[in-house]
Design brief:
Length: 123
């Protein structure tokens, strides 16, 4: 879909790519609320971990003339794998607005922070 070597899936469609876990299912309403009445796509991945892949993915998205903003959340996999309570994970998620240039700077400097939903605006 976006020329990255990992699977990205639509958490709302149970097809051959569907890979939603319990945490994904709990995150869907939060992202749907962000979309509101606007058009948008939800795409999740359990395997989009390499910074190069994240950067490549968002470069494609944010250079699309129809896209105004995108959201990104990277969770601490160790916390989830260690059996952290899903409601506690959801409660600890913060939000931050950032422009695309700032987001790519975070990636290039390896400064992305777990448990923050980045609202990435094109400008």
């Amino acid at each position: 879909m976006y020329d990255i070597p990992v699977k990205i899936f639509d958490p709302l469609v149970k097809d051959e790519d569907y890979d939603a876990c319990d945490l994904c299912l709990k995150l869907i309403p939060r992202f749907q609320a962000k979309l509101g009445s606007n058009e948008g796509l939800l795409r999740f991945s359990h395997k989009l971990k390499r910074l190069e892949d994240i950067e490549r993915f968002f470069l494609k998205i944010l250079t699309d003339p129809e896209v105004k903003k995108a959201y990104f959340l990277m969770l601490d996999h160790n916390s989830y794998l260690l059996g952290m309570n899903i409601s506690k994970i959801l409660k600890n998620i913060k939000e931050k607005q950032i422009n695309a240039e700032g987001f790519f700077d975070l990636i290039q400097n390896e400064k992305l922070v777990f448990n923050i939903i980045y609202e990435i605006r094109k400008y």
